[in-house]
């Protein structure tokens, strides 16, 4: 079939081709039939018929600064007309500038010198971080990670992602991480109450180091068999869970005692999702490595990266050829990333996110009082969670969550005489949590519209 003929196909014909020729391996078919979108702008997606869908997940937080952001898009297009391609063994100024700006921003925040290693996706950056960790710790392969944590689905990244279903059909690449309970206080793993638990979860973790017979420490040398702890300060796929304020500070005290590195996965929470440049800034901890991606280019071009402390990544310990990807520091990506950093510098993103996040959270908490099925609402900046439950306010209700999601994607929410769709993302341990990651540039009136549309969805689903 010629390209021109393909251009003229309608939705049904396109879906038939998708069913026949596209791998389902990288597609999550939440809907039947799947939705096809045609264009985007700001906080909005539009389907093939031009119907508007308010997007409250923005490509899993990849588009923090709004679809078709003119400042970032223009920089990308200028690079397209100048130097769109270059093998990464050569240099271009945008790579150097972007690495410098990010490294200097990190040094300003944490007082630590380091360097940047670029790659093309979050999982690939996680893989690079594993190389850095293993290399620095002289080949240690064991890691700690959190229950509910998500760090990617490549072979090595899936080893430190808690969901077994990502490993089940492929076996183990290296060594599966030791998964530690995340401080999910609404559903505490230990059945404790946050008001009087006195960080019981930290004390349980600390017990692992009391004797060599717990399998993590040589007490004669004080050396742990575990090289690093991979963390998300706010769990993404796990349901935008917000930990207690002192949790990571206390965890860090234990890790530093035994020389265990902290690898901070900021792929979803970086670039002001939580109201700070990095989510970890909220928790008074200095990481050894930071992994980032997604919104670095506002989703325009695939690029990710790892920042590591100088003693982990300097050329003497991590020399040329230690890792490689053909498109790792591609000029289009670095140009878009540099424009994103400039956009951040020119705008008071922190104040914007804090104010909008507080407003959205207040509106949701008001709604929670009216609907018993909203069991928990929480957030940090514009990383917001809505946990849907049975009317008892605690038992997860995945079925209702799915119905709400599906109704939103039908594009038939009538408000002020117009039909709207609502794009939501479902996450959480029991797949009953709406994880809201709206554009940081979302307008206040769009937040109000979301509240109206979401409440209408609840009513349409019989709540």
Q: What's the overall geometry?
A: globular
Q: Taking Cα atoms only, what radius of gyration do you get, to the nearest Å?
A: 23 Å
**Helix count, per DSSP?**
14
Major sheet strand order: 4-12-11-10-9-5-6
Number of DSSP E strands: 18
How much of the sequence lies in strands comes to 15-25%
Largest sheet: number of strands, sense, barrel closure = 7 strands, mixed
Helix content: 25-40%
Spans of at least 5 consecutive residues with low confidence: none
Q: What integer is the average pLDDT?
A: 96
* End-to-end gap: 48 Å
SS-based class? alpha/beta
Account of the protein in words:
The chain has helices spanning 3-7, 11-21, 58-61, 70-80, 93-110, 122-136, 155-159, 200-207, 247-257, 310-313, 331-346, 349-370, 398-409, 444-460, and strands spanning 37-41, 44-47, 52-55, 114-119, 142-146, 178-180, 217-218, 223-224, 226-231, 261-265, 289-292, 304-309, 374-380, 383-388, 413-415, 418-423, 426-427, 433-436. The strands form 4 sheets. The protein has a 7-stranded mixed sheet, with helices on both faces. A 5-stranded mixed sheet has the order 1-2-3-16-15. Strands 13-14-18-17 form a 4-stranded antiparallel sheet. The protein has 14 helices and 18 strands. Helix 5 crosses helix 11. By secondary structure, it is α/β, with parallel strands linked by helices. It starts with a helix and ends with a helix. Helix 9 (247-257) links the parallel strand 9 and strand 10 (261-265).
Give me a quick take on this structure.
The protein is α/β, with parallel strands linked by helices. 34% of the residues lie in helices and 17% in strands.
């Amino acid at each position: 079939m010629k390209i021109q003929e393909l251009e003229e196909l309608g939705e049904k014909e396109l879906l038939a081709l998708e069913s026949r020729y596209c791998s389902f391996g990288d597609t999550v078919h939440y809907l039947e039939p799947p939705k096809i979108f045609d264009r985007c702008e700001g906080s909005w997606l539009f389907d093939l018929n031009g119907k508007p869908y308010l997007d409250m997940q923005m490509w899993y937080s990849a588009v923090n600064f709004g679809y078709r952001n003119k400042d970032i898009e223009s920089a990308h297009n200028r690079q397209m007309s100048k130097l769109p391609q270059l093998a990464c063994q050569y240099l271009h100024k945008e790579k150097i500038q972007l690495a410098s700006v990010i490294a200097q921003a990190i040094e300003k925040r944490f007082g630590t010198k380091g360097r940047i290693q670029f790659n093309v996706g979050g999982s690939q950056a996680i893989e690079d971080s594993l190389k850095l960790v293993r290399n620095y710790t002289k080949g240690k392969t064991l890691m700690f990670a959190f229950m509910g944590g998500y760090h990617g689905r490549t072979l090595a990244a899936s080893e430190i992602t808690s969901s077994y279903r990502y490993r089940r059909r492929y076996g183990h690449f290296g060594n599966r991480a030791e998964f530690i309970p995340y401080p999910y206080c609404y559903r505490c793993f230990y059945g404790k109450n946050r008001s009087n638990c006195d960080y019981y979860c930290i004390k349980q973790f600390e017990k692992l180091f009391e004797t060599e017979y717990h399998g993590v420490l040589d007490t004669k040398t004080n050396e742990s068999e575990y090289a690093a702890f991979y963390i998300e300060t706010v769990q993404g796929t796990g349901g935008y869970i917000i930990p207690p304020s002192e949790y990571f500070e206390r965890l860090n005290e234990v890790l530093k005692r035994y020389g265990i590195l902290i690898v901070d996965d900021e792929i979803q929470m970086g670039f002001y999702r939580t109201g700070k440049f990095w989510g970890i800034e909220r928790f008074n901890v200095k990481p050894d490595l930071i992994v980032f991606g997604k919104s670095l280019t506002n989703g325009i071009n695939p690029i990710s990266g790892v920042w590591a402390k100088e003693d982990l990544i300097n050329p003497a310990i991590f020399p040329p050829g230690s890792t490689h990807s053909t498109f790792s520091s591609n000029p289009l990506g670095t140009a878009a990333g540099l424009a994103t950093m400039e956009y951040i510098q020119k705008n008071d993103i922190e104040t914007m996110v804090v104010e909008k996040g507080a407003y959205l959270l207040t509106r949701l908490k008001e709604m929670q009082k009216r609907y018993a099925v909203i069991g928990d609402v929480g957030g940090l900046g514009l990383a917001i969670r809505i946990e849907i439950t049975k009317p008892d306010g605690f038992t997860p209700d995945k079925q209702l969550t799915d119905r709400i999601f599906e109704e939103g994607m039908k594009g038939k929410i009538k408000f002020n005489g117009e039909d709207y769709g609502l794009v939501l993302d479902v996450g959480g341990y029991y797949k009953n949590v709406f994880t809201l990651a709206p554009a940081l540039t979302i307008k206040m009136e769009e937040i109000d519209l979301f509240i109206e549309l979401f409440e209408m969805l609840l009513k349409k689903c019989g709540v």
